[in-house]
């Protein structure tokens, strides 16, 4: 990786005009030359991407430069320079760039300048009593959670590394252990394609404590900038959740042949309000990372509230589960009994539901085999994320489709079913492969392609896309005129295509 000098003439790059270099030189002066990286040109004239490898082994995009601004003002200045110069290059932004399995830091298309916003890492303001924080995109879930330790508020954590971005994850509609993260986005500070910075949704007012509510009056604009190519987000107001007084995670195991009946039973508990947060159901392959024996699927049912409520609900759920005869094991004491074989993992799981992350990423490393810092270089992981109706037959069908993919490609997929509510499941399909083995890598990508084809044919449509399947956004949206409207907005707000198009376009 070469560093762009703060002063002096930048090295010329094949095929890129002087205007681009003038813009880049000005950016270098604005943010500091050491915060701009360029691709290295090899003797073969194939530039080596400054983004480095990605764990999915998706094709590395030809990136023109990576810029690492430190402030929202830097971002505003950079976007304005791009807009004013009229150069044919677009900006792709990320927070901590840990979009593992979906492309990590890669933009959708070649030729982008990448904005690495991990340096915008200020928690600008926080009000524990009212339940909000103003976060920049580089703020990790571990940092925010540490600040909230011992308070009456908590963060809606994901099961990814503790060192991933709260805002970045929410902007791709990530899913936390309490609910989908977009539900926590109350307001956004966005740099529009012409360089203007606007705030939409709810923002704190210094003189009067208004209730934290995202929609305001009139059209609600926060979601316009989620999975969006209409702006670069420089900060967000994020809801902090009330911390439950008590919390328990009940563990259930069942055999795969009981999938339809067991998931239908769990769905009834969700529909009747017995559970809190996202109920998780792991297929055999995914359950292994949590210590379940071969041949067993796993369910984590979280209950929380006052201590008395938790005791009562734990009793109801375990009694229901035992009475159903569907589960091979029913346990509510893994986290409290140090003698159970599942104790350490169960403690981690309960802590995560309670908003208390593990900064050492023990469980994350068990699942991936790598640390957050080395995963992109050493690990091979692909993700496929469809939504599936929360019914026994639909979830049994998921199992059949995964068996078909196994038969066709030899790839055994892990599947975690995250119940977003009583009707919709976020189905996280995971494929692990040996990244140094070209055949295994090609096979995993073949399996990913089959997943897109097979699942979407059933109506199980993904809610997030990897960088190689961005074209599916157009194919999968019903022909209701919505995409044409989105295109009109894009043309209106960004006629020069300053913000990287293509991620969900
Ligand atoms: C073992 C494992 C477990 C995982 N568990 C979960 C889980 O529980 N839930 C989950 O959701 N994911 C999970 N993931 C996937 C992924 O790691 C997380 O979603 C992670 O939070 C995404 O990385 P990030 O936070 O750095 O987001 P980023 O990579 O920074 O951002 C994601 C995308 O959002 C957009 N974006 C980000 N910032 C901006 C901005 N400022 N302006 C405009 N657009 C922006 C870009 O399109 C970017 O590609 C898991 C992955 C693994 C390997």
Describe it:
By secondary structure, this protein is an alpha+beta fold. It has four domains: 2-118, Uridine Diphospho-n-acetylenolpyruvylglucosamine Reductase, domain 2, CATH 3.30.43; 121-242, 2-Layer Sandwich (Uridine Diphospho-n-acetylenolpyruvylglucosamine Reductase, domain 3); 247-278 and 291-354, Alpha-Beta Plaits (2-Layer Sandwich), CATH 3.30.70; 371-468, FAD-linked oxidases, C-terminal domain (Vanillyl-alcohol Oxidase, Chain A, domain 3), CATH 3.40.462.10. It contains 14 helices and 22 strands. It has helices at 18-31, 72-85, 141-148, 166-171, 259-271, 284-287, 307-324, 343-353, 362-368, 375-378, 392-409, 438-457, 472-476, 482-493; strands at residues 2-3, 36-38, 40-41, 47-48, 65-67, 91-94, 113-116, 123-127, 132-135, 153-154, 185-191, 197-201, 232-239, 241-242, 246-254, 279-282, 297-305, 329-331, 381-384, 387-389, 414-419, 424-432. Helix 1 (18-31) packs antiparallel against helix 2, helix 5 (259-271) crosses helix 11 and helix 11 packs antiparallel against helix 12. The protein binds flavin-adenine dinucleotide. Residues 93-101, 117, 137, 158-160, 164-165, 168-169, 171-172, 174-175, 232-233, 364, 367-368, 381, 503 line the site of flavin-adenine dinucleotide.
């Amino acid at each position: 990786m070469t560093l762009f000098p703060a002063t002096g003439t930048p090295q010329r790059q094949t095929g890129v005009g002087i205007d681009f270099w003038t813009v880049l030189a000005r950016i270098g002066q604005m943010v500091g030359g050491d915060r701009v990286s360029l691709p290295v040109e090899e003797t073969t004239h194939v530039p080596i991407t400054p983004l480095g490898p990605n764990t999915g082994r998706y094709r590395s995009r030809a990136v023109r430069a990576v810029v690492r601004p430190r402030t929202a003002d830097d971002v505003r200045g950079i976007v304005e320079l791009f807009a004013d110069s009229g150069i044919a290059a677009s900006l792709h932004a990320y927070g901590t760039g840990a979009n593992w399995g979906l492309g990590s830091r890669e933009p959708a298309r070649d030729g982008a300048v990448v904005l690495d916003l991990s340096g915008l890492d200020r928690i600008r303001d926080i009000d524990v009593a009212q339940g909000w924080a103003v976060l920049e995109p580089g703020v990790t879930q571990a940092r925010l959670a540490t600040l909230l330790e011992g308070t009456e508020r908590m963060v809606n954590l994901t099961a990814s590394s503790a060192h991933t971005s709260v805002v970045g994850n929410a902007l791709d509609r990530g899913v936390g252990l309490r609910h989908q993260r977009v539900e926590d986005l109350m307001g956004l500070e966005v740099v529009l394609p012409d360089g203007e910075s606007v705030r939409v949704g709810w923002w704190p007012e210094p003189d009067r404590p208004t209730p934290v509510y995202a929609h305001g009056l009139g059209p609600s604009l926060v979601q316009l900038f989620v999975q969006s190519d209409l702006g670069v987000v420089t900060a967000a107001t994020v809801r902090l959740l009330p911390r439950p007084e008590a919390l328990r995670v009940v563990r259930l195991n069942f055999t795969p042949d009981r999938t339809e009946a067991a998931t239908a039973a769990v769905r009834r508990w969700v529909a009747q309000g017995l559970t809190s947060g996202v109920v998780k159901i792991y297929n055999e392959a995914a359950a292994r990372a949590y210590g379940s024996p071969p041949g067993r699927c796993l369910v984590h049912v979280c209950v929380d509230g006052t201590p008395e409520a938790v005791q009562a609900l734990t009793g109801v759920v375990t009694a229901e589960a035992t009475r159903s005869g569907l589960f091979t094991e029913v346990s509510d004491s893994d986290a409290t009994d140090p003698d159970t074989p599942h104790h350490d993992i169960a403690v981690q799981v309960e802590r995560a539901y309670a908003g208390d992350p593990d900064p050492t990423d023990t469980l994350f490393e068990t699942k991936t085999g790598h640390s957050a810092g080395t995963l992109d270089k050493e690990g091979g992981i692909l993700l496929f994320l469809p939504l599936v109706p929360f019914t026994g037959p639909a979830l049994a069908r998921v199992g059949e489709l995964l068996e078909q993919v196994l038969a066709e490609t030899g790839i055994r997929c892990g599947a975690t079913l995250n119940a977003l509510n009583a009707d919709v499941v976020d189905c996280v399909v995971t494929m692990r492969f040996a990244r140094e083995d070209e055949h295994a890598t090609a096979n995993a990508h073949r399996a990913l392609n089959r997943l897109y084809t097979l699942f979407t044919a059933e109506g199980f449509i993904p809610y997030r896309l990897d960088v190689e399947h961005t074209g599916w956004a157009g194919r999968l949206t019903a022909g209701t005129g919505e995409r044409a409207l989105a295109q009109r907005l894009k043309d209106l707000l960004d006629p020069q295509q300053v913000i990287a198009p293509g991620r969900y376009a």
